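call fold(seq) -> tokens
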Amino acid sequence: MQWMALGSMWFALIIPAILILYLLKRKVEDRVVPSTLLWQRTLQNWEAVRPWEKLRRNLLLFLQLLAALLLVLALLRPAISTEGLAADHTILVIENSGSMQAREGEQTRLQRAVVTAAEWIEKLSSSQTVTLIEAGLEPNVLLTKSGDRQQLLHTLEQLSPSNGGTDTNAALSLAGAIAANEPGSSVIWLGDGEAAAESGAGSVMTADLGHFRFVQMGRTRENTAIGVFVTQKEAQGVNGLVRIDNHGSQQAKGKVTVYDHENKLVDTDSFSVEAGSSGTIVLEQLPASPAYRAVIVPEQDALAQDNEVWSVPAATGRGTAAIVSPAGNRFLHQAIQTAGSLEVESMQQVPANGEGSRDVWIYDGVVPDKLPDGNILVMAPEQEAGWLPYEGKRELDQQPKVTSADDPLLRYVDFADVHVAKTAVLGDMPGMKTLVQAGETDLVRAGTIAGRRVVILGFDLHDSDFPLRPAFPIFMRNAVTWLVSTEAAPIGTLTPFEQLSVPLTPGAEKRVLTDPAGHQEPVQATGTNWMLEVPNQTGLYRLDEELPAGQKSRWIAVQMSEAQSDITPKTMKLAAAITQPGAGETAAAQTLGSLELMPWLAVLALLVVFVEWRVYQRGY
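ret:
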């Protein structure tokens, strides 16, 4: 039995108050009677000095005390524990993060949460409704205020595991907003608490959540994972490193095996890592392969999804650049040659349409009518084009001033000692931002136009002392690094649902992304950049690009976030929240809700008052 409002206990004073009223002697009235012989006992009582009289048996007193007792109990709000959902409207939030795939017994934590929720739904009364929310990287309302058991159960069955994280605060905010619109709602969170620990849940006040309860699905913390797997191309071959993390409380032992992209065994070793620590295994002179897969087989492990990780060898790709300068520019050519690993080609005029493609097109004093296939660096434009609003030239009498110091193009670049005599004046260009100004005139702009990265220096190098300053080679290196797509370099290791701007090879006629299962999907992208939303499936992806010179393939490794490998059950520490421990097979058997008895007690009290009134009318 639970008492939800013990602060109302002072209302119990009404019981002794009723008793005092019955103990007080009745007021005496003067009456004329023929004889006092039959009134002796009454006269003795009236003639007593004390104002009290002996408490007598009285049906009205009993009924009044019973009604008062029932009312006091109702004000104390007693409640009994229930195994089902007690509220008329329950918001069930099911955490769906990578750690919820940890297996405990015959089921994963997510499966246990789904089974538990299904058992509660099967016990719903005809007047109860449920809202289902999936707490993932973004909260997803699966079903809103439904009382259809079959629909609710079918929706639960469709819930698929996620390899990503969970935005706990967003899910709690959504549940709180729904509960605020439905008075008397109850919010129940089923999960292992990993998401709450990772995002620092607690900024959402539980007052917004109404009656909140956290039901923990996890018990074990034993898990061994591959935290890091990196490979690097060297002159003698490919070297690598595997970091194995033991998140458990016992020593972890097992075997690590490395395969190439064709699933051929290339190396194997054993490992032993102490509890709560990490160990590394160095791999040397691996045979050449575009990608490698490391697999561990621990003796004790609850989460299998982090036991396999792909790695794409890091390498420096050689990009291509074309410098179009009718008069030639020794400063520019030398800076581009030393700025990065580029194959540089010089031209004196803009090539005709369709005359090849480059990673970077550098235009010095000229402007192409149409955007080429590749990113663009424009210096000293002197004419207007459909994509470039040229408005003339302007003499400058002020020093250059940086307006976006945190931009990667201006890293370690100091314009304080740079002087510029004159520059081109450009109109408004959507997608471009100003990096350097002289007064109100833009000197350097950068951004994206039609899917291409573009950098514009409005002034001629010969009209400034910029090439003589240390800032010039640093700026050119930053610009080349930002502009070159480097399709030969790896994209890197990503996590599910992450968003990444992938540089594309200019001039590709067709692009296809192949997932780890072999399914292919065309890539719809224009320009030299493609915004990739990483799928939920972990493994190795391949991006194929069909070029006039042949097909180029790039590899993308997707793995579960390291944070999800720590499967230690956490508690959602929210003020006034009720945390219910219990996981695995015992979770469903634990009491969940509280059924308040106040309405029934109030009805009984009214019924007793009605009976007392009838008794009084009959003169008892």
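The chain is about 20% helix and 35% strand.
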